[in-house]
Design goal:
Length: 125
């Protein structure tokens, strides 16, 4: 795998949803580092600061886009961002559509500004 400048972290309340979105992104972006965290530490519906922190640490890129599904995923992702040395952009955008768009653009070697411009219309209002 050729390392890309940017990577993606996907966070969901449902482990299978996080894994599924990451799998979908991987189909469009085989060379992009994509990691995910889903569910609580017990595998229940919810999120886990520890799982999110691990997904960030495991991502090969130092410049990340962070996508999440719902409120507590955002809160735990924000806390994990604060404790990481990586540059992580918290994306308040449509979850699946924007993560897929970012993955495809990163795969095509688009720069960060181009990715952000494409995601702007997908911002949650």
């Amino acid at each position: 795998m050729r390392k890309k400048a940017c990577g993606i972290v996907v966070v969901s309340h449902i482990p299978e949803l996080a894994a599924g979105v990451a799998r979908l992104l991987g189909e469009a972006a085989k060379d992009v580092s994509i990691t995910y965290a889903g569910g609580t530490d017990e595998g229940k519906v919810g999120t886990s600061f520890e799982k999110i922190s691990a997904a960030i640490a495991e991502n090969e890129a130092d410049d990340l886009f962070g996508f999440y599904d719902l409120g507590s995923a955002k809160i735990n992702l924000e806390m994990a961002i604060e404790t990481s040395d990586k540059n992580i952009r918290l994306m308040d955008t449509a979850f699946v559509e924007s993560a897929y768009t970012a993955a495809a653009l990163i795969q095509a070697d688009a720069d960060v500004e181009a990715v952000l411009a494409q995601l702007d219309p997908l911002k949650v209002k």
